[in-house]
Amino acid sequence: MVEDSLFTPRSVAIVGATSNPQKRGNSTIRFLERGAFRGAIYPVNPKYQEVLGYKCYPTLKEIPGPVDHVVCCLPAHSVPALAKECVEKGVKLLHVYTAGFSETGIPERIELEQQVIGISRQGKLRILGPNCMGVYRPSVGLAFNIHSPKETGSVSVISQSGGNASDLGRMASARGLRFNKVISYGNAADINETELLDFLGRDSGTKVVGAFIEGVRDMPGFLKTLSVVSRSKPVVIVKGGTTEAGARAAAAHTGAVASRESWDAVWKETEAVSVSNMEELIDVLLVFQSLRAPAGRNVGVIGIGGGDAIQAADDLEVAGLSVPGLKQETQAAMREFTPLPGTSVNNPLDLNVMRQGPELQRILELTAGEDAIHALIVVLRVDQTLGNPKGEKTFAEMMDTVEQFHATSPKPMIIVSRALGSLEAFAAGLKLQEKFDRIGVPVYPSITRAAHALGKFVRFVASSQM
Amino acid sequence: MVEDSLFTPRSVAIVGATSNPQKRGNSTIRFLERGAFRGAIYPVNPKYQEVLGYKCYPTLKEIPGPVDHVVCCLPAHSVPALAKECVEKGVKLLHVYTAGFSETGIPERIELEQQVIGISRQGKLRILGPNCMGVYRPSVGLAFNIHSPKETGSVSVISQSGGNASDLGRMASARGLRFNKVISYGNAADINETELLDFLGRDSGTKVVGAFIEGVRDMPGFLKTLSVVSRSKPVVIVKGGTTEAGARAAAAHTGAVASRESWDAVWKETEAVSVSNMEELIDVLLVFQSLRAPAGRNVGVIGIGGGDAIQAADDLEVAGLSVPGLKQETQAAMREFTPLPGTSVNNPLDLNVMRQGPELQRILELTAGEDAIHALIVVLRVDQTLGNPKGEKTFAEMMDTVEQFHATSPKPMIIVSRALGSLEAFAAGLKLQEKFDRIGVPVYPSITRAAHALGKFVRFVASSQM
Fold this sequence. Notes:
Two copies of one chain form a homodimer. In chain A, 44% of the residues lie in helices and 16% in strands. Chain A is of the alpha/beta class. In chain A, helix 3 (79-89) packs parallel to helix 4. At the A-B interface, helix 5, helix 8, helix 11, helix 14 and helix 16 of A face helix 5, helix 8, helix 11, helix 14 and helix 16 of B.
């Protein structure tokens, strides 16, 4: 099974290993170490006796034991010979990090790629790439950069772009997204989106699937697989290259033939969720990862300031959600301790200034206590709170109150944290993020983005219950 | 003229002045001090002899000199009496910070607001608010929070929401936006959006106008004024309360009657630019503030990574812009020093890794050197660069190269800075922001947002040249 050598290799050989820390043949080994990879690590390069403390082999053949997974950091013209060696050694998976193949559009380079694939088919060798970052799977220690979280999660992503795959790991750390597997698959000369998607559909570790796809070679096959997978778990897709210039860029990037028309069927005939960029992909994966499914589309908003409250209401309705008014008795109960000037105790609530302690606790309880409210969005204005006297104390108490409330509330909750105004606020925002990560509450940087992600989630839940 | 007392008061009295730093009657005085307000500052409160080192007067009447501008921090029920005192003292402008008037929907409170307006009309007193933050004008030292930049600029904004007005100052600091005047006008019981817009249209210090409007009382008058102003300078508007729930929130916030239908005429019959939230307002104001008008809609993109390049191309085309291919000879000239693997030297460019020094300089020159390219978007991946060995040095050189190129290039340029992955990257991003602020290059946190703002700018420029 290609899955085993891709995701659970017992040994990894790095061909083109080097002592130069600027090169991939060095960083790949460091990533494995950082990830505490428990299998064997074999640097391969005739120029070295040792790399980073590991015995370095002149060729693959010389490695004493079996090799499941080879990472190729050689120049493109050396790859066919390496593929041949892999076949002879009985390697299962060759990840070709190297670029400079069909994506260049140069006939000899296209030919070179075909040659590698031809050789692989003479054995049982499978190729990932060329022109890709490979596999990030924190639970076994596979990684392709030093920023990706070490913790494992339930989200898996396939990405034709290595930069996007890499970014995802980096950005995810700061957003509370945790991955099971991320696969950067580049030119998809052998292992492609359909095979990977099929695997993730069957993978018990994967609860949510994300994808950045530039082009699909076999659209009928892809559609068939996607239809099945997207009925069993959410599949969120960025289609890159939807415009003429975008398609040209995709062709230059991975040789992808990005046919726009054929994607209409994807959105019509499957349950896949369409998003338009990586930022939105993260937003939507996050809500699928972290939020319990709300029982309906009615949202209670706890805002600070009328502008925020209005924005929340507009954004939620535009996203297909609803912001119902609260019962008169609920409003009256809040009014008992909420000053009249500058506040609104109807949904969307405007608390005017950040409250904490028993008052905030009671407002959360009263709002969530209405049967008609299915989910909560709570806006925490980090920027503003820190600017006030006693800001830090207020901020800490406010987070504690929300956390305590969440522990006993059955209603799903999203936090909007506004913390981009200063370095101090950004740092406080990261702390807030960590705190809410731990209790599984997703955090968004704006009301608009929270509303948008929640809308996609609620629509998916509704359609999968039909 | 109400303008003088609003924007250039010779003296400001703070009624309800107090030693309690948590109260508006204290912070208002501190904001004036921080802003180095050069007029007279008169605290008024019979309970104090002195507040923050200023002599405190028991009543307005006791103040020896004339008073142009009064800030009211008293409870709502005391405001009619204060308005009467203002009329007697010959005050020109009463800013009613106090909330708890018509926005509550309570008949006696609506009546209270009308009473204040009635009294003001017995003299030449004008009312700003009630339920608002007042005026921020850095050049004279008027401010409503401690975060707003002290530097003056060319953008003026009117906002019915005090929270949004306040946020704008806070967020703007970190985005390079600089204001001439920001007016939070709340319930608009007297001075309203139309009068303020008319003034900003005639104001030579204001080059660009932004607005957050919840409701307009006199739509024909507003339309007439907006038609005139939006032909002479860009007017960018967030209409809050465009949905049913949003309109309910707007009514609770400032008593605004937000009729959705009537706004269709605003977008059809005037040159006003519509944006859907405060984040987008900042993005669009920034491009109008900082960018020279491009000669056309063709954009050259310098990206790092194929995923970025594709995203840029898609986003720009969706925004109504174009990403034309480069000439064969331009591509050949770049290829001389750009390695083949992992890069694309056609527009949108994919440099694979961040480059700096002469190579980046030459790439910028060659791209901008094509007549068909009217503007540049340069993506600087702060997150990724800092993660590399020698990251800080590379990052500094890269910024220098772009700055040097910009100094001699006639083509407008936008920077996309991706720096949200860690505290270190955010800090570096703020430095980058400051550097490019100084040379008037707008910086965006994502390609999508840069493309969107540039699209609105180019469309406005094209339509105003027709």
